[in-house]
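Case study 2.
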Amino acid sequence: MVFGRSRIAIISAAVSLLISILIINAVIDGSIERLDAWGSAVAAKIVPDGAAPFFEMISGFGSTMGIGVIGILFLAVLWWKKRDYLGMAVFVFAVAIGNEVNKWIKEMAGRPRPVTAPSTDLHSLSFPSGHAMVGLTVYMLIAYFLIKDSKVKSLKWLVGILAGLLILLVGISRNVLGAHYPSDVWGGFFLGYVWTYLFITLYEVVNKKLKRKPV
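Prediction:
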């Protein structure tokens, strides 16, 4: 099944876009603050004491360094194993432009970081979380390309579950560490899904046309 034309993927993208708009509006007018306070309180009760080192490690997978290293390694896989130059281009542009879009939305929302944010994060605004948005793009694309060519159903499920779990933990880590509000993270997830869906669809459309092109 082609992901871009999957009914579930299309509906998910439409719903994600709608929720993203609602969250952006709620962040700008401040109406989401109570929900954020409640979400942070729940996270504080659920996350055990001493879990900070684990979440700091997980957060590294969504950092500029983490994404850079993993991105380069995956590009090497796409080149060496698959010679998928279109996939390499889509991956690079989706991540690079997505990072700039994330910064643009941050400027539009203009939301300051929580008072609990580490000093290393204070140079940028809060909404949406770059770790959540760009991290989702990176790991969803990696999962997509690995699943696309796999013929083993159980392996597809394993890759999808592991990618989803990593994406979720990276986002949660930003709230647990006090770097973001919960809505920053969820807004990043929904925006990231819409963005990644567009690039996967672009890849599939162009790839189909290239395969039809006579040699």
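The CA atoms of residues 33 and 143 lie 34 Å apart.
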